[in-house]
Amino acid sequence: MKTEQQQLNAMYARVRQVFSQDEFDSLAPQQRMLLDNAILRAANKQGLEAVTVDRLEGIKELVTHHLWSDAHEEAFTKNDS
Description:
It is a single chain. The protein has 81 residues and is mainly α. 79% of the residues lie in helices and 0% in strands. The protein contains 5 helices and no strands. Helix 1 (4-18) crosses helix 4 (53-66) and helix 3 runs antiparallel to helix 4 (53-66). The protein is elongated.
């Protein structure tokens, strides 16, 4: 049986497969919060092993395309200027 630390390390490795460092760095703080909350929800309900690459790809699509519109991007880009 894997220790909790081993499970966490394996989950983070899966996250890095789906989100490159550049992609992660380009997320707005609100998008990071959405991402973190989605991962936490899956892990809390079904365990760390439930945070699979397929699930992470779905979360990525939701966070970057469906829950984050062009209007959000434009608004936050203007605020950064």
